[in-house]
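<backbone_tokenisation>
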Amino acid sequence: MYGFNAITALLAAMCVCAPFCNAAQSTSVPPPETRATLIVGVFDAPPFAEAITQPDGSKAWEGTSIRLLDSIATDLHLKLEYKVGTEREILDALTAGSIDVCASPLAPTVARMNHFNFSYAYTAIGIAAATRASSSVSSDFELMLAALAAPASSHLYLITTICIALFALLVWWVERHRGGHFAEHPWRGIGASLWWSVVTLATVGYGDKVPASFTGRLIASVWMLASLILTAVMTATIVGSITLNVAGHSKVRSAADLLHLRVATVQSSVASDWLTTLGVSFIQSPTLDGAITMLADKRVDAVLAPALQLAQAIRGHDDLALTTTMFAEEYMSFGISFKQDDAFLRQFNLALVNAIPRLEKHDSPSVATALDSASTIPPTAKDTP
């Protein structure tokens, strides 16, 4: 009787709790039509946010930042509405509060932090420079000759010459009485062994001169293995010297070189902030493509921008090259409007930290509509973010 009463009480409790459990489950993940909408601004910043053409001819956006934001929206049960504009327009809209988040990466600066918040940094971008590449054949030939005459190469040539002569003498010494390919007469015998040594080093192996004795073949085997190592080291040394000479031949080898050059960059960008801090005068361009056009037309000597974006922008320009010098490294974040409270910022950062390890590379692109410029309020020139 006691067991029957216990079972009855348990069933009654389950019936009473069931509606509340169902209600809690139904409210944990709101349906798409009732989710809050987050207005997201985006500007071209490959590979973090870049426009692609879909099969139907329409434009869509994809990239690391877009995928991160889509994952964050899934975790926070938000709908995203993308608005596209230039970097200046997006910054103005973020300042005015007409958009909630900037999907394209932004570097926190003092001026910008007076106008909107920033999320945790999710990537770091190095600032690099693009210059006009030398297209002169004589200049390329000079760079190659300089690499061949480099001190490191000279020492390697000496070691190689000594090894060629040493193994040639050893083979001639053990083979000179064999009556084979290496004559006993020093001039003819050593001349033949030198030829054999050079051919072995070059891994050509004509086969016209070969040692016949066991000792001679053992020496030849050692020289073959040593030749492979010498050839690899020589190749790496010469290629390294050429790379260093190309870097040294560039107009931009350090930040001090920028003081004497005509420099262009995108207005209100990370590079422009860095140049301003350095005290370098520069020409501002609304877009990176515009700055690259100025460089190609020889109106400026160098263009500064984040390295990844710069590498993407100079594709197709055979006359332009990216310098090997990396000037600065900036940590990039999402920009978040001041109208979003601290609780939202904390939830956003938690979702961001959770989304980074499970970032997928093949999410579907996001469609963006044009930003309504009438809704933006341009900040004063003094406080431009």
